[in-house]
Amino acid sequence: MNTKLALIALAASAALVGSAHAFIPWVHPEGSATNFDWFNGGSDNGRFGSPVLVGGDTWIFFPGDYRAQSSGGGSSITTDRMSVEIIAHLGQRIEHATPFPTWSYSIVGDGSVSAFSSLIATDLIDGSRTLVNTVNFFSSAPGSGDIHPYIDLDLTQSAPDWTHFNLSWEVTFSATSGPGGSASIEQRVYNMQLPAPGSLALLGIAGLISRRRR
Questions:
Q1: For residues 192 and 124, what is the distance between their CA atoms, to the nearest angstrom?
Q2: Cα 121 from chain centroid?
Q3: Is there a contact between 183 and 70 (Cβ–Cβ < 8 Å)?
Q4: Mind spelling out the 3-state secondary structure of 142-153?
Q5: What confidence tens digit (pLDDT) does each residue in 141-168 have?
Q6: CB–CB of 70/179 below 8 Å?
Q7: Which among 17, 66, 125, 144 has most CB atoms closer than 10 A?
Q8: Cβ of 132: how many Cβ atoms within 10 Å?
């Protein structure tokens, strides 16, 4: 089995283990923003941290030890899944769900890193309606840097309007290293302004959900 396939298998195993853990609520698992209310906010392992509401419609998360790191051989996996119920205020709709994460990585010598991200919106009015978008990242080249993957759920492509739904976002990091090598990858805080007046922005480590008036 090559390195990339091994990381995929490890990531799948980590996701199963994470799903068996108790759900950890945010400090404020429910509340009200300018254009939406939220309920049942939290994550499987607490690594996403609890968000801070700023600017009326923006959540900023501060991750807690959201990092996979390996040195001198072996593999490391870190995973978490955040989940929150969103209800648009009267006369509003959700048009996009777009996280903007920042993943920082480093590879020295023999090593590799990967990230597996899945964003899912499930309509709580019509439970059969679900939208999914996934983004993966893999590197085995020595070096370091920041990755800003673009992940978007276009909720306008599916009628009727999205006004009450559950949003979940899962990110799994993997790092492997050989003798004398090291590798690490982590989730970091990233700031984002509201995209436009009157729209909704939901930022989780820069997660953004935008909404406009009909």
A1: 27
A2: 12
A3: yes
A4: CEEEEECCCCCE
A5: 999 999 998 888 888 888 898 889 999 9
A6: no
A7: 66
A8: 11
Task: Tell me the C-alpha distance between 195 and 208, whole Å.
Answer: 9
Minimal CA–CA distance to 76: which of 152, 206, 177?
177
Question: What's the rounded Cα separation, in Å, for the pair 67 and 73?
Answer: 17
Of 79, 82, 65, 71, which Cα lies nearest the Cα of 177? 71
The DSSP call for residue 182 is E
At 43 the pLDDT is 94
What is the C-alpha to C-alpha distance for residues 165 and 131, in angstroms, rounded to an integer? 11
**Widest pairwise Cα distance in the chain:** 59
Q: How far apart are CA 12 and CA 31, in angstroms?
A: 33
Contact criterion met (CB below 8 Å) for 61 and 111: no
Task: Please report the pLDDT score of residue 75 as a whole number.
Answer: 96
Phi then psi for residue 185, to 5 deg, are -150, 140
For residue 197, give its domain range: 3-210
* CB contact at 8 A, 136 and 113: no
Tokens at 89, concatenated: 């205020």
* Calculated CA dihedral for residues 123, 124, 128, 133, nearest 10 degrees: 30
| pLDDT at position 62 | 85
As beta bridge partners, residue 36 has 88
- Report the predicted TM-score, pTM, of the whole model to 2 decimal places: 0.80
d(C-alpha 21, C-alpha 211), whole Å: 32
